[in-house]
Amino acid sequence: MTETVVLKLGGSVITDKSGECAIDHARLHEVAEELAAHRETALVLVHGAGSCGHPEARRYHINDGLTGENIPGVYETHAAVSSLNTAVVDALRDTGVEAIGIHPLDLALAEDGRLVSFETRHIAEMTEHGIVPVLHGDVVMDRLRGSCIVSGDQLVTRLAVALASRRVGLATDVPGVLQNGLVVPRIDRSVAATLDVGGSGNTDVTGGMQGKIAELLALADAGIDSHIFHVSKIGRFLDGTGHGGTIIGRSMP
Amino acid sequence: MTETVVLKLGGSVITDKSGECAIDHARLHEVAEELAAHRETALVLVHGAGSCGHPEARRYHINDGLTGENIPGVYETHAAVSSLNTAVVDALRDTGVEAIGIHPLDLALAEDGRLVSFETRHIAEMTEHGIVPVLHGDVVMDRLRGSCIVSGDQLVTRLAVALASRRVGLATDVPGVLQNGLVVPRIDRSVAATLDVGGSGNTDVTGGMQGKIAELLALADAGIDSHIFHVSKIGRFLDGTGHGGTIIGRSMP
Predict the structure, then answer these.
(1) Does A107 contact B119 at a Cβ distance shorter than 8 Å?
(2) What ipTM, to 2 d.p.?
(3) What is the third-level CATH fold of A4-248?
């Protein structure tokens, strides 16, 4: 079994976050060409929602749970991010990558915002046949709240652990985690305590960069390092050469 | 918790099986109106693939497993039946039913053609909030074959058991199970042994009426009766009045 790479495309990388589901098809095409050039890699792709889903989730307060009134928001949020997923899958297939979309709402159960059931063996089976499963941040059913939002970052950590991945990358629209305009090369829990990276400026219901670091520190606790880098460095990340970004890892003893 | 009804729409009910993904939108609209009139019912809907998916599954020999060559057939088959699922969900939402599509490929794992992993707690959570999950026969990953086809009938039995449903209905384009042109009112294992119902005349890779009866006899063994009736009788089935079709049940002692 070849090692599986888990790669996330940030929502702001593939959409214009200031618009309403404004998909950046040119960027998607560039990313697809890069992934097609690394077709031998066993890959699971995850993408954020960006402006496809975040506005709906916010409008319907989906992350706060279900009341009588906001139930249509489950469909509306899911439909918006699913349309982005279709665009990602189509871009990949256009370059010959055997991509298939997987929607977390269809399989996941959460409790108070955290996944408690999430099958991954069929996803592993796909990668063994050269299929690239493409998942996304999504609304999912939550047995305490009714519904919640599961971020792409939470999915990345869940998949990385389940698939025993040792190569986890997050492609963003910045060169890495920035502090005073400079990339922080390595973050562990002690470094994280000193950082002030700020929230996401746009409509992100999942915690922006702070939420991302919290997820990835938990992944580091499980012994899996992760890499945050600019989307233009995907090829270098897949090649294992320097990407100039941030590595999130376990505290040095 | 209200009792959940599991209702299946046969593929030949909502598509023209002699065409290639020829969706019968008028029929879908009629069914949607009927379900909208029974909106108080907690309902899980399953539909067959009909001419959306069966031709692709057959062309790529998806049910025989994955080889190097036929891997694109997973996507092609799934995309075809997913397009039918979208049409079903849209028809329901147009009449005000809070329908959401759930794709078995996204959650299921099979072994030699039978489901071995299939989460249903999120589906139950949906029905408790008045959402109607709409599933469908689909290609799924299979840990022995690589891939297989899971029929809508297999999904019905799995869902009925998991959701402890006591009202399971299968709407078809015939009035029930026919023997010499007449409806057989009740089938148990002893009656089934004497039947010659024939196969499906069109491109059905899941066993037609014989496969259906085999699934439903297994469901009867688990103590759950099921009803096969003409699609025009959905309202009568939901009302619990006579539908003039076939009941599949356990053998009388």
Answers:
(1) yes
(2) 0.94
(3) Carbamate kinase (3.40.1160)
